[in-house]
Amino acid sequence: MYTLGNFTSKFLGFFLVFVLTFFLSKEELGFYDLVLTSISLFVPIVSLQIGDAAFRWLIENSKSLTISMVFTNSIILYFILFLIFSFSATIFYCIFDWEYYWIIFLIIVMQCLYTFFRQLLRGMNKSKIFALSGVVFVFLYLFLAGISLYLFENKILSVLISYLIATTSIVIILFLKEQLWVYFQLSLYSKEISLELLKYSIPLLPNSLSWWAISSVNRYLILFFLGVSYNGIFAIAFKIPTLLLLFVGVFQLAWQEKAISNYSSQYRDQYYSKIHDYFLRFIFSISVIVIIFNKLILDLIVSENFFEAWKYTSLLLLSMIFSSLSGFYGIGYLSSKKTSGASTSTISGALVTVVLSVLLIPSFELYGASLAIVFGYLVTYIIRLYHSKKFFKIEINKAVFFKLFFLYVLVSAVSYWDFNYSFLFNLLIGLGFLIKINITEIRLIWSNRKIVTKRIWKN
Asked: pTM of the prediction?
């Protein structure tokens, strides 16, 4: 269900950015990317990630009374947070008078509710609605954006309005269809429960902001040192590696539930190690395939003004590999409810990214920005690898890791070399090696294809 729902919605959203390259200039796309980057910064700040706390509580106990307690206290907290945000945003507007201010303000508010409602439903074991809501949102967003791009002259404003309408529509649909108002009972408000939710969610905030800083803060540094057109190129270059995150995002949703439910099992370490081995093969395999087809993909789906983005894919994709591994080990903080520990690793990674971005971007331009992100995620991964020993013991298949890493470097180097048969070389060597190292998993999936299909249809 997560694959069908989350992947479909993410892929469609991913596709929209490349479509925009035919409507927007480098400068316009760079500005649009900065707006989205800013929204992704403010959503966790405004919401304090209460939705994550609600999910963590409900996954252990999704009885009606618990749902009502969590929903009631969460909604009251959101109401207070929105009031504070409105007051702060109004002061900001009076001082800076930023373009598109009000629509960005509304998008942030609705995005907070959209995320909370979906996390709530996920905690209530309504994975089908959780997945379907994401698909409907993106289809609606694509439909509205497609129409507005043709009808209106201000392309950026039309896309932002489409985003707001789509988000608001899904929030209303979920609220009415799932009858969420039934769970709001003012008598269940408890200061103690509210504080417990905040005690869990607030330590996640530095972690989320640090993740944001590692992947996004250099957008502003690129704007400062190089200009908004470079940010447009970097936005496209960064989108190709997010193909890996599309798959990993699906895995992480299911992995969180399985890991938490198996955390107290006596066979936990063996189970975690087995999944880690599969995950390692999975992310490197996807990454190698993306590198092989990188130029071909960009040539087909972006305008020629953005084609040079291929140069930065290998470095940015490597950063996504370390990001994915960091996310895998982050399950220890969630399972143990010791979320404050997650911040140490991501803050360290964020600091490394910021410092290296300032040092490298002026001299190495977008290569410097890409390297800064690689080292930021690498530092995060190393620290989490060390922290994980407190929660579980995972046996890493080092032989497989280094073989896959060598293949990744080889395929990347050949793509830069660009001789007459470089694509064919990468295709034969890369795919041949991947098939060989994953042959057991391929046979397992093929032999169980009917069972998997039946389970999907049953869900």
From this structure: 0.79
DSSP for 55-114, please give it. Answer: HHHHTT---HHHHHHHHHHHHHHHHHHHHHHHHHHHHHHHHH--TTHHHHHHHHHHHHHH
- Give every CB contact of residue 98 below 8 A, 6+ residues apart in sequence: 92, 104
Cα separation values, 407 from 188, 204, 246, Å: 57, 35, 22
> Distance between CA atoms of 389 and 409, rounded to whole angstroms?
29
CA distance to 113, 116, 145, per residue, from 64 (Å): 21, 17, 39
- What φ, ψ does residue 116 adopt, rounded to 5°? -65, -50
Q: Tokens standing for 328? A: 């895998």
Give the whole-angstrom CA distance, residue 426 versus residue 432: 9
Is-contact 21 305, C-beta < 8 A?
yes
Structure tokens, 67 = 């749902």
- HSE on the CB side for 207, CA within 13 Å? 23
* CB contact at 8 A, 170 and 138: no
Q: What is the Cα–Cα distance from 339 to 346, expressed in whole angstroms?
A: 12
* 2: nearest Cα among 165, 118, 166, 175: 118
Mean pLDDT by 10 residues, the chain (459 residues): 61 71 82 86 92 83 78 94 92 76 92 93 84 86 88 86 94 93 90 88 82 87 90 87 78 76 80 88 89 86 84 93 88 66 82 95 94 95 85 85 91 81 84 82 75 59
Say which residue the tokens 């089908």 belong to. Answer: 128
135 vs 146: CA distance, rounded Å: 16
Handedness of CA 119, 124, 127, 129 (dihedral sign): negative
